[in-house]
Amino acid sequence: MAELTVEVGLQEAAAKAAVLIESLPWLKRFRGEIIVVKFGGHAMVDEQLARAFAEDIAYLLLAGIHPVVVHGGGPQITAELEKHGIESRFVGGHRVTTPAAIGLVRDVLVGQVGAGLVDLINEHGPFATAFPGDRDGLLTGQRRGVSIDGTIVDLGLAGEVVSVNPRVLLTEIEAGRVPVVSTVARESGTDVVLNVNADSAAASIAIALGAAKLVVLTDVAGLYRDWPDRASLVSVITTEELAVLLPTLESGMIPKMTACLHAVEGGVAKAAIIDGRVQHSILLEVFTRGGIGTEVVPA
């Protein structure tokens, strides 16, 4: 019996060693590089998934990779607006942000989601620092509308990022810390705060930092050519193929895939959307041969 126990123990140890060795090519590839991770989806509201995400980010940092976390806060914002009797309205997958809502939106993003995520990461060491996007000129934005059947619909104080000050983040990265960016921005030429789409902001930040990869967490297994046919899941797609497919996608997927397209066209080597409902999905994507989800690569 003792010999059997020892043999089983050796087999388990060998299996763990095999997993570690499989990560070696990716450690060599990404060590010293920046990876921008957009935190979102179900992982934002599931404590166990959020803790697993924080563990992944701490692991990346300790493995010599420089993660930068960018987050939104859709579910939390909706809940807070409801609490204050403010209606949540979406057009084309984008939140309409009113002047009455923007203060609450910022409070949720910075004081609730961002601060909570920093606390989770810092359970593993003094690693993470919160960065509101409207601070120190980090994110500058402009208001945007969305085209619905050829008509531009106003989104209020919702905007898109037009410039990023990378030095603010690079200072933290060079000090060995993880910036956690809340996606609010200062409107160009004014002091008005804008609520900016987190997927788009993550892409702009990845480009500005010269990141090696952008990873976007979502609530599906990846991109499907013909949803809901699960056999149509796409493992790898080029920017040229994605540009053609983009107009046919579900409205909720369009901002995420547009962000991936924008990032890769802007010089980021690869972008991926992955299923944030899977524990340790970041490590599975970065350190395994097949990865998970859908990877966007240059044409």
Note down, in words, how this protein is organized:
Helix 3 packs across helix 5, helix 4 packs across helix 5 and helix 7 runs parallel beside helix 9. The termini are far apart. A hairpin with a 5-residue loop joins strand 9 and strand 10. The strands form 4 sheets. The chain has an 8-stranded mixed β-sheet with strand order 5-8-2-1-11-15-16-14, sandwiched between helices. Strands 6-7-10-9 form a 4-stranded mixed β-barrel. It is built from 10 helices and 16 strands. 41% of the residues lie in helices and 27% in strands. The longest helix has 23 residues. By secondary structure, the protein is of the alpha/beta class. It has one domain: Acetylglutamate kinase-like (Carbamate kinase, 3-Layer(aba) Sandwich).
What is the CATH C-level name? Alpha Beta
Tertiary shape: globular
Placed side by side, the strands forming the largest sheet appear as 5-8-2-1-11-15-16-14
Q: CATH architecture, please?
A: 3-Layer(aba) Sandwich
Radius of gyration: 20 Å
State the CATH superfamily name: Acetylglutamate kinase-like
- Mean pLDDT equals 91
DSSP summary, beta strand count:
16
| Total number of distinct structural domains | 1
Order of helices and strands: HHEHEHEEHEEEHEEEHEEEEHHEHE
Give a short account of the largest sheet.
8 strands, mixed
Gap between N and C termini: 58 Å
Oligomeric nature of the chains: single chain
Total helices: the number is 10
CATH topology call? Carbamate kinase
By secondary-structure content and strand pairing, the structural class works out as alpha/beta
Helix content: 40-55%
**Strand proportion:** 25-35%
Uncertain regions: pLDDT < 50 for 5+ in a row?
Answer: none
